[in-house]
């Protein structure tokens, strides 16, 4: 088969840029077949190691091969010419279609030598092997986190940039991840596709069903290495471990105060916003913190106060009753949301919270987790120590 050849001598940077060459002063030979396909050679020009003469006019990224540039340009144009005959998937590159076809064929030719996992793509096996080697090559430039997969680093980067590219068409709320949008959308459709075979309760997420099922099995796979306590969820263990480390990761952007739990930060931020979402159903008085409302309602003689407002299931020491949303007979700490299969375990756990709130204000009885917070609170009472009665002190506590 004969080739049709034409030569073009590029002598100016403008010509070089137009031809997609990062190095414009080269002799480029356009080679095409009778069908018109452009092969693309650079005549008399040897690409040196590391040199990338083909540049993208859209973003400036350059490549060693013209074919690589062509494939890259499809990312900008959204062109996906390679279509799967088995499903609706389409791809910008032929090798991606070939890799995808293994899914339909059930073929997983790439096997890990360290475990029994196998993959349809060699690259997936390569990435998986980092689980065994501990290699985490993708490092965040903003913090010290690193990842096995590049896609995980991309997702993490949105924490720093604030990018939320996935938007709900129903309410306009946006998310950092596609799967979070999918989960959220079920709140509009009321779809709960994951059903428990034991009790029939259904969930909108697979992992929610997994956590729920541990109530039936008693499985608590996440164990604290410091005290031996175990948890149903990993995030419960992470939150609990802060008690031992003293770490306070939730910081107020207004005043710099930091907190162990996110819920504590949310309560504190109402000091700055003036929000008072917890309202007494007896007298209508409202409070910024739920615990303050509970103490206030004791004045009305309420053994189990009725609570209105957001967060009505936090910051209280009680248990879920049978038939509640945590499962039949499950004991739940209303301070932190952790659940237990036995009442004795719950009571032991609640002693930790009692220690956390060991700093008590003598004028009004309100308790705090730290001495510093108590001191700041007591300054409110000292503003008018001669005229402030106990009732006024209670009112001051409610408005703090």
TrEMBL record:
Q: Name one GO biological process term.
A: regulation of gene expression
Biased composition of type Polar residues is found at 380-391
Task: Identify the GO cellular component terms for this protein.
Answer: nucleus
GO MF annotations in UniProt: DNA binding; identical protein binding; zinc ion binding
Compositional bias annotation for Basic and acidic residues: 296-307
Name the Pfam families for this protein. zf-C2H2
Question: Where is this protein localized, as stated in its record?
Answer: Nucleus
From the UniProt annotation, give the residues forming the signal peptide: none
Question: InterPro entries from the entry?
Answer: Zinc_finger, Znf_C2H2_sf, Znf_C2H2_type
| Keywords (A to Z) from UniProt | DNA-binding, Metal-binding, Nucleus, Repeat, Transcription, Transcription regulation, Zinc, Zinc-finger
* Positions of the UniProt region annotated as Disordered: 296-321, 379-400
Q: Where is the C2H2-type domain?
A: 54-81, 82-109, 110-137, 138-165, 166-193, 194-221, 222-249, 250-277, 278-305, 331-358, 359-386
Membership in a protein family: Belongs to the krueppel C2H2-type zinc-finger protein family.
Report the protein name in the record. Answer: C2H2-type domain-containing protein
Organism the protein comes from: Pelusios castaneus (West African mud turtle)
